[in-house]
Amino acid sequence: MRVLVIGSGAREHALCTALRADPAVVGVVCAPGNAGTDTVAESRPVDASDPASIADLAAAVAADLVVIGPEVPLVAGAADAVRGKGIACFGPSGPAAMLEGSKDFAKAVMAAAAVPTAASRSCHRVADIAAALALFGPPYVVKDDGLAAGKGVVVTPDRAVAEAHGRSIIAAGGSILVEEFLAGPEVSLFAVTDGETIVPLLPAQDFKRIGDGDTGPNTGGMGAYCPLPWLPSGFVDDVVAQVLRPTVAEMARRGTPYTGLLYAGLVLTAAGPRVIEFNARFGDPETQVVLALLDSPLGGLLYAAATGALAGHPPLRWIDQYAVTVVLAAAGYPGAPRTGDAVLGAEAEGILHAGTRRGADGQILVSSGRVLSVTATGHDLAAARSVAYERVSTVDFADMQFRTDIAAAAVRGDITIPA
Ligand code: AMP
Ligand code: GLY
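A: This is the predicted complex of the input protein with glycine.
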């Protein structure tokens, strides 16, 4: 089969690499791609925010399967447009992708399906913010209802900062969710689904803040590791039963069946796992570590999900190791990243590209905030972590930013679920 992957991040570089390793996949095209995907896939231009542009490209490259990486095209209806051409697509319909596209919608689905999640109030008017903040108290959690590239959430003890975030979103024409703060470690659990059968992948942990020790502003994600040695046994089965299965059933009941990748962002509280967000696609950077350990052919799995055939798919096989990825970000990220700097050492093993492009002389240049995702596996987490950081030390660009503590607390055995 020929596969078209839409997107340009390290997630897409990881997807293209895994698809190419599937013997059933004869060709991979990535659009628009980056300086790394062009070494494992054919690069094609596309307007990734335009469903028609994606569907036309899928037909033009004779794709048998389209895999849509980012949320923006999914919410815009790209999967519907591709399926409209009679081409299989891994990704939810536009209406189903609203599980990520509107936090209000996701809360309504969770309420109807009795899925455990943080209590919240939605505010459409500035006048409502103060009462919502007072209801939950500090630390305050204020979320943009709509898509915000991982930067729509502010968690702060400072009421004025929380209120200002809410005001700026509403002033720009949006609405917000004010949420109860949940204490506990976070887990990202991905599941592949065809709308009925649910196949969970390995749980992973992401690091959202820019700075070591979870300091500074939220980002798209600064690193990840998997699997999580500190999880209680039965965790994945519990989340499938309490979160994923009821959510997929409720989406089907509403006449908007959910297919593709369902990403549950969870906090492990004293009262059990609670959903803090759903995403409608593979997470970045968690995908880089999850796929590093997937031993089953990826193309076959995604094609089965896209064609309603997951029930007949063999159980997934995993490499019995650990994986760690460290994101290298440009100066200025997550604000306005500086672009154009030369990147040295980016073509070595384990280095997945995100914000890179080739200059006129073929040199690799920084093109957006998250530049590379440096990935390694090992027989234990400490080994994977140390190889990942050795690889980081061989890469250089001006004012490169990265966290030095990815997976460190887990290696120390320092992660505890509140009792
Ligand atoms: P999200 O974009 O919804 O994943 O939120 C970004 C980050 O904000 C999460 O990864 C958490 O670290 C934090 N966060 C979101 N919601 C909550 C909550 N209800 N309680 C505590 N932290 C939260
Ligand atoms: N890793 C967070 C996300 O993909 O949204």
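The two ends are 49 Å apart (CA to CA). The longest strand covers residues 260-269.
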